[in-house]
Each structure stands twice: as structure tokens, then as C-alpha cells.
Design goal:
The complex is a heterodimer of chains A (469) and B (341).
Chain A lengths: L4 H40 L2 H34 L2 H27 L1 H7 L6 H30 L4 E4 L2 E4 L2 H5 L2 H32 L3 H36 L1 H7 L11 E8 L4 E8 L2 H7 L21 H29 L7 H9 L3 H17 L2 E3 L3 E2 H4 L6 H32 L21 H6 L9
Antiparallel strand pairs in A: 1-2, 3-4, 5-6
Chain B lengths: L7 H31 L5 H11 L3 H18 L1 H10 L1 H20 L4 H30 L4 E2 L2 E2 L9 H25 L2 H31 L2 H9 L6 H18 L4 H22 L2 E3 L3 E2 H4 L3 H28 L6 H7 L4
Antiparallel strand pairs in B: 1-2, 3-4
Helix pairs in contact in B: 1-2, 1-3, 1-6, 1-7, 2-14, 3-4, 3-13, 5-6, 6-7, 7-8, 7-11, 8-9, 8-10, 9-11, 10-11
Classes of the chains: A mainly alpha (469), B mainly alpha (341).
């Protein structure tokens, strides 16, 4: 791999977006979870939902803040490093991403503030409506991001005028068929990420024998939601695979590590794809299964990477493994959620430590699946940035040198390390401390200053050595 | 290049961006300025009170920067691409400065050991943000080389004597806004301290701007091309900005609390209009016009709906927040900002 501005800019974008996506993926599900909890309390009057709500609200605030900070950096990346992309495709991407920024702001300026600080200033119904609107708003935010990315995967509704790619039909751009599959896929992924975190937190408390009533609520809802959503997600995942097969056959071949066109095609379960020799090492294959997965019959011909000119072939290792790790995480979620519900049904959940440990340790499965899914989608799209229209190597800002990007990458790496260190530390402290009996008022916090929320946690764990002047 | 008149929608978005920049410079300017002045004192009580005076506002002020960025990408993608390419390093410095400022705000109360580090991050980050923005403006006045709608220079092309002067000028200018803000919002010792800073800061801004003016006339012909584009009554705005600076000084001398802040705002508005006159009709001086950079009508129209819904909400939010926290900074508020309860 050569370290030129294109490669380094890709690494920088990948690093910044990976760091960013962790937070929105988590907060999207959390917002919906909070709306459900507040609705439950409103409907049942049971105070336990309030305690669980207040607890997750703080975690939500910190991760929302991290998402905002890392999102501001993203807003500048398209111009700083991908100038040709911004200039040639900006007529389409600019408004889509602009809508996302504006949506996020509407949220921050209105309902999010009420949600954080307005508990005692508005009626319970209004408060509940605000929670729902925040949940809806985070989903709307992801809508615009997915509309933008789906268009980059399968560009539709555009025309080319003087070398610029301009919109011809916004409805087609925003609501294309690919978008209608990929957006639900991302929403479900976000919900599953949160469901697994909520489940793991509940399992952790049971293992430590603390906060038992709250832990029961978390296990109930986390496991229940995951058990229902994983099968639906598998369905949408399959639909996503079909769009790839139809519109991006080279990506599909890379995900399957199918170098040569085969009839009938085998399915490579595990292998190390060797890109230099164009073949798989240590492959475990199932004959004919590849044809069945792609085409639904056991004898169909499936094209391999050899069918594409070398300059149009994506890398293979990352899509191949990214996809398999994502699916593996999905299977773990399926096993944990179904087994967990079975144990619950037989009233042995909270005594089965052999189950609670893996349930606790499965907290990162959602995050890993989200990241690996995106790596598969984005690396598999290469060598194109806008599929079939603009190559990644032609999209970079022409004035950039290797040293420029090396400098920015180093600086971002250092700053994010500090940011991540403290951000994760505070989330961990909040989780470890768990729900409190009485929620304390949050001092001097505003919607985009969520770190203020971590303050009380730091105090409770005795880590603060504040001296007053 | 033929001059094409920009469309109504392009003018609408150019106007939105201009107003958002102005709102950003004045609003975030004062809290960045407080951050700059924060670095000039070691008195812990004073530092806490300084932070308390901007605590409820600074994050909302920053939203205007993102409004500028998002609108620029959506409505003028070519300008977005050229500017961010040209100012790769200043943008990096600005973002790092903004992150450190924001984080320091929350973390400085958490530990005695790390406090020096976060305080340095707050003052240093604020100064870095101000300098990077000022230098970028100076570099724009010298003109941004472009080719095929892309930046055609190096990552350090912006680094010249003139942009360094304007960078320094904006650090002082923001500090002046910060001092005027504290005169308005605080009482007692901190207010007196801020009053005492104003003459020096006015003098500093005046000297740096004068120096920049002289440099542009004598040593740096690139920087003078903007001034040459000013004609006739266009000179009214630079004169107005000098008068406004004088007004800041007189208001401070007369101990009229609201006058310095108002006059400092007038100073920034007239300086901004001066720049606008220098650049018009260019969006990237002196290569890309507003109509060159504008996205097609279909894009401008599609994004127009976002603008007419969201911008009034953000504006109302801003006004509402300043209304809620009107008057002198609550001392109890400062106490909370210091981490006490």
C-alpha cells in the first residue's frame, strides 16, 4: 500500500467516521428506548421506569455530545480532503448533508433541551412528546446520511452537465429503492446495538447483585427487543445483499471471495483471500451453496472478479471478512436473545450465571457489526467514490500532499485519543454507578454541554479531588 | 470569464451565509475573546467568574459556524471545496482549538492535577481559533489561487506576513469583544479589570489594522487589490469602523456599561461590510464569483425549504437563550460553573 494523499485521506476519513458512527448508532437506539420508558411510566405510573429513564438519559447525553463534536469535524472533511467530490457532486451531496445538519440542530435547539432540562417545566405529556420527537429526529438524521450514502452506492435521478453531476429528480435521489432497504438496515442495526448494550448492562448488575429491579427491566426489554429484531434484520440484510448483487456485482464477488466465474458456484465460508495470487488460501467451501444464496437455485452461474477489468475490482480481504464478522455478530445476538428469553420463560434467567457472563460480554457486538457492515459497504464500493461516476483517486483535493494529510491524521489521532479516553471513561463511570434512587438536578448543563452530566458520576466514585478556592 | 448575475435563490443563500458569518463572528467572537483574556490572568477566582459569564452561551454561539459550513456546502459547493482545500491547515487548527475549548470547559473542574492542562487548553484553544480565522481572512484578501474550480496552491500558501497580522488582529479583536462582554455582564472587580483592558485592546486592534494597511500598500501588492476595488462612498465603512473603535473607548471611559459592547459590534459589522465590498461579486477572491460557485437551481430550491424552516428556529433559540440569561451573570451560576453545589 502506497501512502499517497488518496490513501491517507481514505484512512483519515475512515478513522474519523468510524469514531463518529459509534455514537449516533448508539444514541439512535437509546432515544427510542428512552421514549418507550417514558411512555411506560406515563401509562403505568410505575416509578421504576423513571429511575431507568433517568439513568439512561445521562448516558444518552454524553454520547449525544460526543456524536456532535465528532460530527462537526465530519462536516469539514468533504471539503478539506475530497474537494473534487465536493465540487462535482456537491449539488446533490451538499443539500442532503445540509438537511442532516439542520435536522440535528432543530433537535438540539428544541426538544433535546426540554428532554435534558425540562422535566419539571413542562407537563408529562409534553415531555413524552418531546422524547418521541427526539427519537424521531435522530432517525431523520440517519435518513439523510443514508440517502446520501445510498446515492453514492447506486446513483440515480441525476444528470451530468459540463462534467458536474447535478440533480434531475430529488424524489428518486432521496427515496430510491436502495435507500428503502439500506435505511431500515441501519435503523435496525442501531436498535440492536442499543438493545445489546441495555441487555449487557442488566446482566452486569445481576452478576454484581446490584440494582436488581432496574436490571430486570433492562434484561426484559433488551432481550425481548433483540429477539424480535434480529430475524427482521436478517431479512433486511438479505435484501441489502440482493441490491449489491444487482447493482454492484464486483462488490458481491469480493464479499464472496469468488475470483473466477463458477457454475454452479461454491460458497466460501472461511478463507484467507490472497489478492496477489487472486485465490483463496485455507478455504472452507460448500459446493453449490453460492449459487443458491445468490440466485435461489443450485445450478446458477455466478460471476467472479475475473469478469471485471483489474482497475474496476474492489479489494477483497476487508469486504470478505467485514461481511463475515458482521454476520457472526448477528448470530451471537440471535443466540443470546433467544436463549435469554427461553431462560426468562423458564424463570431461570437471573440465576444462570453461565448465561449472564456471555450476555454481559456481548455488549460490543452491535458496534462491531455496524462498523464491519460499513467497512464492507464502503471498501466494497471501491475503486469508486460515486459508483460508476467518479473514482476515489480522482476525488481527492488536488492541492494536498502526503505530508499535509500525514500532519492532519496525526493531529486528529492525538486529539481523538484524549477525547475518547475521557468520553469512554465517563460513560463507564456512569454505567458502573448505575441508577440512583433519586435523580439529582443537573447543574448548569445545556444540550450541547453533555459532559456536565458526567460530573455527578465522577463525584460519586470519589475520583474528584476538587479544592475550592 | 463572463459575469453572470447570480439568481435570486443564490442571492438568498449568499445573504443567509453572510448573516450567519456575522452572527458567528460577533457571538462566538466574544466568548472566544473571553478565552483569550482568560490566558492573561492567573487569579483562579477571576478565571472562574470569566467562564461563568459565557457558560450558558458559548455552545449555542458555535452552532452558527455549522450553519455557515452546511449552507456553504449545500448552496455553493465549489466555494466550499476551494476554501477548505486552501485553508486545510487553518481549518485543522480551528477544529482542534474548538474541541479543546469545549472539552476544557467541562474537564477543568474535575481534577486539581489536570487543571493547568485544561486551562492552557481553554486559553490556547481560544487563541488558536481566533488566529486561524483571522489568518484565513487575511489570506482571502490576498486572493486564493484556483484552477478548474479547485484550490491551486500549497497547504502553507496562506502563511504570509499579512495574514499573520490579520490573525493577530482578530485575536485582539475577539479579546476586545470579550472585554466588552464582561463589562456588560459582570460587576465589581472583574468589571473594573475588563474596563482597564479596553483601552489597550482598542489600541492594539488599531495598531495592527494600521500596520496591515501599511503593509498592504507598501510590501504586499496582493493584499492591496481588495482596497483598490473600493471606490467612492465604499470608504464610508472603514471610516465607520474607526469611529466605532473610538466609540468603544469613549463608552468605556464614561463607564457606560452597554456602549462598549454595542460599539464593538458596530465595529465588526462595518469591518465585515468593508470586506464584503472588497470581495463582491467574488465568493473566492478574486477567482470564483457568487454565481460561479452556486449550485444548480434544483439544489438551491430543494435546500430552500430547509432554510426557511430551520433558520428561524435557530434564530429564535438564540434570542430566547439570551433573554433567559439576561442581566448580570448570576453569582450562584458561577458557583455551579466552578463545580460546587
Amino acid at each position: 500500500m502506497e501512502f499517497d494523499p488518496v490513501t491517507l485521506s481514505r484512512i483519515q476519513f475512515g478513522f474519523l467516521i468510524s469514531f463518529h458512527i459509534i455514537f449516533p448508532a448508539f444514541t439512535m437506539g437509546l432515544a427510542a428506548w428512552l421514549a418507550v420508558l417514558d411512555g411506560l411510566r406515563l401509562a403505568t405510573g410505575n416509578e421504576i421506569y423513571r429511575r431507568v429513564f433517568d439513568f439512561w438519559l445521562r448516558i444518552f447525553a454524553v454520547s449525544f455530545g460526543m456524536g456532535v463534536v465528532t460530527g462537526i469535524v465530519m462536516a469539514f472533511q468533504f471539503g478539506t480532503n475530497w474537494g473534487v467530490l465536493a465540487e462535482r457532486v456537491g449539488a446533490i451531496q451538499g443539500p442532503l448533508l445540509g438537511y442532516e445538519s439542520f435536522t440535528a440542530f432543530m433537535l438540539e435547539a428544541t426538544c433535546f433541551g426540554v428532554m435534558l432540562l425540562g422535566r419539571h417545566r413542562v407537563s408529562p405529556t409534553v415531555y413524552f412528546i418531546c422524547c418521541c420527537l427526539v427519537a424521531l429526529g435522530t432517525m431523520l438524521s440517519s435518513f439523510w446520511i443514508l440517502a446520501n450514502n445510498s446515492w453514492m452506492q447506486v446513483p440515480v435521478g441525476h444528470t451530468v452537465v459540463d462534467g458536474k453531476i447535478v440533480p434531475a429528480d430529488w424524489r428518486e435521489i432521496v427515496l430510491g429503492p436502495v435507500m428503502m432497504v439500506r435505511w431500515p438496515h441501519m435503523l435496525l442495526a442501531a436498535f440492536l446495538t442499543t438493545a445489546m448494550c441495555v441487555t449487557a448492562t442488566g446482566a452486569w448488575y445481576v452478576l454484581r447483585d446490584v440494582h436488581r429491579p432496574e436490571a430486570r427491566v433492562m434484561l426484559h426489554w433488551g432481550l425481548g427487543l433483540a429477539a424480535v429484531l434480529v430475524p427482521i434484520q436478517i431479512l433486511f440484510g438479505h435484501e441489502t445483499g440482493l441490491y449489491v448483487l444487482k447493482h454492484q456485482p464486483a462488490k458481491f464477488a469480493a464479499i464472496e471471495a469468488r475470483w473466477k466465474t463458477e457454475q454452479p458456484a461454491a460458497e466460501v465460508l472461511m478463507a484467507w483471500p490472497d489478492e496477489a495470487q487472486q485465490k483463496n488460501l485455507f478455504a472452507i467451501e460448500v459446493p453449490r451453496l453460492g449459487s443458491f444464496i445468490a440466485s435461489g437455485n443450485w445450478t446458477a452461474k455466478e460471476i467472479g472478479l475475473e469478469a471485471f477489468p483489474p482497475e474496476d475490482r474492489p479489494p477483497v480481504v476487508i469486504p470478505f471478512w467485514g461481511f463475515r464478522i458482521m454476520v457472526g455478530m448477528g448470530l451471537i445476538m440471535l443466540a443470546v436473545s433467544w436463549l435469554g428469553n427461553l431462560l426468562r420463560w423458564r424463570r431461570r434467567l437471573e440465576t444462570s450465571r453461565w448465561f449472564l457472563w456471555p450476555a454481559f460480554l456481548s455488549f460490543p457486538t452491535g458496534f462491531i457489526a455496524v462498523l464491519c457492515g460499513w467497512y464492507t459497504a464502503e471498501v466494497g464500493r471501491q475503486p469508486w467514490v460515486v459508483y460508476g461516476l467518479l473514482r476515489t483517486k480522482d476525488a481527492v483535493t488536488p492541492s494536498l500532499t502526503t505530508n499535509d494529510v500525514l500532519l492532519s491524521l496525526t493531529v486528529y489521532g492525538l486529539v481523538y485519543a484524549v477525547l475518547a479516553g475521557f468520553g469512554f471513561l465517563y460513560i463507564y463511570k456512569l454505567l458502573r454507578r448505575g441508577p440512583e434512587a433519586a435523580a439529582e438536578p443537573i447543574p448548569n448543563a445545556t444540550p450541547s454541554r453533555p459532559m456536565a452530566f458526567a460530573d455527578t458520576a465522577a463525584t460519586a466514585t470519589g475520583s474528584r479531588t476538587e479544592g475550592r478556592e | 470569464m463572463t459575469m453572470v448575475e447570480p439568481s435570486t435563490l443564490a442571492l438568498f443563500w449568499a445573504g443567509v451565509i453572510a448573516l450567519a458569518i456575522l452572527a458567528y463572528v460577533i457571538l462566538d467572537g466574544f466568548d472566544i475573546g473571553v478565552g483569550v483574556l482568560f490566558g492573561t490572568t492567573r487569579d483562579q477566582a477571576r478565571r472562574a467568574e470569566m467562564m461563568g459569564s459565557i457558560a450558558p452561551f458559548w455552545d449555542g454561539n458555535e452552532t452558527w459556524l455549522v450553519v455557515v459550513g452546511a449552507s456553504l456546502f449545500a448552496a455553493f459547493p465549489a466555494a466550499y471545496a476551494v476554501l477548505l482545500g486552501a485553508f486545510y491547515v487553518p481549518v485543522l487548527l480551528m477544529l482542534v482549538g474548538l474541541i479543546f475549548r469545549g472539552v476544557a470547559f467541562e474537564f477543568r473542574y474535575r481534577s486539581q492535577r489536570m487543571r493547568r492542562f485544561w486551562d492552557a487548553g481553554f486559553a490556547g484553544g481560544s487563541t488558536l481559533v481566533a488566529f486561524a480565522q483571522g489568518a484565513a481572512v487575511g489570506a482571502m484578501m490576498r486572493g486564493v489561487p484556483t484552477q478548474d474550480m479547485q484550490f491551486a496552491g500549497g497547504a502553507f500558501s496562506w502563511l504570509h506576513g499579512f495574514p499573520v497580522l490579520t490573525g493577530l488582529g482578530l485575536v485582539l479583536g475577539y479579546a476586545l469583544l470579550g472585554a466588552c462582554w464582561m463589562v456588560l455582564k459582570t460587576e465589581g472587580a472583574l468589571q473594573a479589570w475588563s474596563y482597564a483592558r479596553i483601552p489597550w485592546l482598542v489600541g492594539g486592534v488599531f495598531v495592527v489594522l494600521g500596520l496591515a494597511f501599511v503593509v498592504s500598500l507598501t510590501a504586499d501588492p496582493d493584499a492591496a487589490q481588495g482596497a483598490r476595488r473600493m471606490s467612492g462612498w465604499g470608504a464610508a465603512f472603514p471610516i465607520l469602523s474607526v469611529l466605532a473603535l473610538l466609540g468603544v473607548l469613549l463608552g468605556a471611559r464614561a463607564r457606560r456599561e452597554a456602549v462598549p459592547m454595542a460599539m464593538a459590534a458596530v465595529f465588526f459589522v462595518s469591518a465585515f461590510l468593508t470586506l464584503g465590498l472588497m470581495f463582491w461579486p467574488y465568493m473566492i477572491p478574486y477567482a470564483v464569483t457568487v454565481s460561479d460557485a452556486a449550485a444548480p437551481e434544483a439544489s438551491l430550491r430543494f435546500f430552500f425549504y430547509a432554510g426557511i424552516v430551520v433558520l428561524p428556529v435557530i434564530a429564535a433559540y438564540t434570542v430566547g437563550k439570551y433573554w433567559i440569561f439576561r442581566g448580570k451573570t448570576d453569582r450562584r451560576h458561577v458557583g455551579v460553573a466552578r463545580g460546587g453545589r
